[in-house]
Amino acid sequence: MNDENQPSPDEPAGPIGGKGDTSCGFVALIGAPNSGKSTLTNALVGAKISIVTHKAQTTRGPVRGLALEDNTQIVLVDTPGIFQPRRRLDRAMTATAWDRAADADLILLVVDARRGADEKAMAVVERLDEMKVPAALAINKVDLVKKPKLLELVADLSAPDRFDETFMISALNGDGVAD
């Protein structure tokens, strides 16, 4: 069947259902409450899909957004903040974050530069070390911290081969987000 609207075999097709190198992957954004996961998700998607507020635990379930880069579709999964749960709801939210991380093609750990490598951040890093999912580190809110502290933070968090990439960003004002 020959249809005029179909691309010829020699012609490159569009991103959906056609020829050309296309790829898709899931990236789970995890980290402590108020580390900037939702702000970063919104910045990468280019739209407000996640609620952003100073109140901790605003994100109670995974929020998915799509970021496009050339022929690549990245499904971003904004997860609830990871912390030491006390109530059943807290345990469910933390479990959801870890479940989404385990299902992802890449985990992006978002750390608040002002808090640094505190106990909460290091507990998340240690658990990431046990997982078989590639991980990257996004140190957020770098505009609020002096450079020597940032270098110390990177050294504390980035043991050899722990993260595939490390990004210094300010999700709120967009610095480093395009990287």
From TrEMBL:
Residues 57-61 are annotated as: G2. GO terms for molecular function: GTP binding; ribosomal small subunit binding; rRNA binding. Gene3D superfamilies: P-loop containing nucleotide triphosphate hydrolases. InterPro entries: G_ERA_dom, GTP-bd, GTPase_Era-like, P-loop_NTPase, Small_GTP-bd. Pfam families: MMR_HSR1 (PF01926). Keywords: GTP-binding, Nucleotide-binding. Residues 78-81 are annotated as: G3. CDD domains: Era. Residues 140-143 are annotated as: G4. Residues 31-38 are annotated as: G1. Residues 23-179 form the Era-type G domain. One of its GO terms (biological process) is ribosomal small subunit assembly. One of its GO terms (cellular component) is cytosol. Residues 169-171 are annotated as: G5. The keyword Zinc does not apply. PANTHER family: GTPASE ERA, GTPASE ERA, MITOCHONDRIAL. Belongs to the TRAFAC class TrmE-Era-EngA-EngB-Septin-like GTPase superfamily. Era GTPase family. NCBIfam families: era, small_GTP. This is GTPase Era.
